[in-house]
Design a protein that fits this description.
It is a single chain. With 234 residues, this protein is of the alpha/beta class. It has 2 domains: 157 residues, P-loop containing nucleotide triphosphate hydrolases (Rossmann fold); 67 residues, no CATH class. Helix content is 36%, strand content 27%. It has 10 helices and 10 strands. It has a 6-stranded mixed β-sheet, sandwiched between helices. The chain has a 4-stranded antiparallel β-sheet with strand order 2-1-4-5, with helices on one face. Helix 3 runs parallel beside helix 6. It binds adenosine-5'-triphosphate (ATP). The site of adenosine-5'-triphosphate has 11 residues, from strand 2 and helix 1.
Amino acid sequence: MLEVANLNAWYGRSHILQGIGFSVAKGEAVCLIGRNGAGKTTTLRSIMGLVPKRTGTVKFKGEDILPAPTHRRLGMGLAYVPEDRRIVRGLTVLENLRLGLVASPNRHREGEIIDRIAETFPRLRERLNQAGDTLSGGEQQMLAIARALAADPQLIMLDEPSEGIMPVLVDEMFELFARLKREGLTILIVEQNVERALALADRAYIVDQGEIVHSGGAAELLANPEIQEKYCAV
Ligand code: ATP
């Protein structure tokens, strides 16, 4: 479903991604792991077209999307939940959810989609008219995920979803990811919580200094403390 080859990206003169390549098959959950600053977020941002200077190929469902404007990806079924969540201040939970539909082919089915989301996220259902930025950190993360799911993506990219969230909500969130995967959603996740991410994922790639330095089955990596110590410690 997603094929990344020889992906390079720059911030100013800094050459951050240096030939990243990996793939995600339909229905898979794949994890990118690596130390802080390794280039995981930049990889997701480049796939979304949010890093201005980028080269290589990013094929989504066979089409090279790297040169396409960011909003085109949503209509094609690719969703992104950024690390900083981007909940819009001053808008309610419901209004934030509606934003997820703006560039989506689902925008005409708003009522039905909001009902479905409210069922999946009971915490949000109780707070639909509350200002989005007054939610707890974990609830804001749920809202960011719900907003991305509103467009019915085929592949969702999640950047550090468990960061700064209390353990009970992290449990809830990973149960949701496992359920979404069982229902057929393809997942690409960046996560510092390596054990949890590897428990969800089928496969993982280790990113170090803008390159993929190792890849393997999630179970194999979970059982490999040396690799985890070398590349995954913060
Ligand atoms: P983290 O877990 O800390 O987010 P990461 O693996 O996601 O780590 P990136 O955020 O992709 O790493 O950062 C990769 C490198 O790019 C780092 O050296 C970082 O300082 C640099 N970088 C990230 N964003 C910018 C930016 N907007 N301008 C300049 N350099 C940046």
